User: What shape does this take?
Amino acid sequence: MLDIVNLNKTFGKTKVLADINLKVGRGEMVALIGASGSGKSTLMKHISGLVAADRDSGHVAVGGRSVQCGGLVCGDIRKTRTDIGVVFQQFNLVSRLSVTTNVLLGALGRTPLWRSLLLAFRQGDRELAVEALRKVGIADKADQRASTLSGGQQQRAAIARALVQKASVILADEPIASLDPESSIMVMELLRKLNREEKITVLVSLHQVDYAIKYCTRAVALCCGRILYDGPCESLTAEKMKAIYGLGAAGMFESARAEHRHQVPAPSAGMPVGEMGENALGAWVQGGTCLGQQKCQHPACRSMSGGSASHRESGPQPGGWSAVDGHNGGIGAQRLLAAI
Ligand SMILES: Nc1ncnc2c1ncn2[C@@H]1O[C@H](COP(=O)(O)OP(=O)(O)OP(=O)(O)O)[C@@H](O)[C@H]1O
Ligand SMILES: [Mg+2]
Assistant: This one.
């Protein structure tokens, strides 16, 4: 459903995405995790064609349609975007419009200009909006102004908008970052329900690893713009979390893991493994240099004095952890973990 090949992105002199290769199968629900500044939002913007990759770099396709290729966003991106629902942390509703009208904005991609300008949506789309609001559980709020909804309700309206859009993929960029725990659970359960019942593919970026473990079968972890882990949430260990987030993550992770262990599906359940790539199952899939960004929370980066110059590529090491080794210029996983 999502196919990203050799994607690179540089802002100024800073490389923020490096050699991203990622496949997400139809009907998967995948958590995109990683420290602040690791590139999650940037990757999502590339998938929706809002940002173009470096010149001559990479290819992104959604549902078999090209989004961008070689640093150029495809000419028919508007058509492709109708398939991609985007949900943001800040909801992105038009506050002075009614909830129903906001939800109907999802139909703009297939609505003629004159109808769009007059907000004269077709009857069929109006019926879809009513149904979408019912599905997300806020049918009773249909006529209220969006600004009068709580955060959790606004996020559910944003998801209803994606339903009216008839998106087959939802990219949710930190959809629960502004919500209290109860609303967060509601929104994550809603995404999971749509994933399971409507077969919508979901890529959701999360800072809360416990939610990733609870709701997603697969996690993709970014560190300094590289994919450091791609595999079942079940196989995320405390050591891997340390490598992704740095010291302190492991304890937090273990308690989340203990809490949710009984709810996590088996690694293979509902997961089209064949579409996850050769090294996908629980593997550190992409070794290589750390980008040495200032924001990087990686212990290897924090312990290094100034950047990427001394980092080197490193291949897989016996016993695994190749990306950790690669990240640290070949110091070795055991020594790295001992150091933290
Ligand atoms: N338009 C831009 N111009 C320059 N740098 C940018 C731009 N957009 C993103 N960046 C940089 O790219 C890096 C990745 O940013 P991004 O927003 O993708 O991180 P993130 O993983 O989503 O972080 P967070 O978890 O805090 O949302 C950051 O260092 C950021 O400063
Ligand atoms: Mg972000």
Summary: Confidence is low (pLDDT under 50) at residues 264-283, 286-340. The longest strand covers residues 14-24.
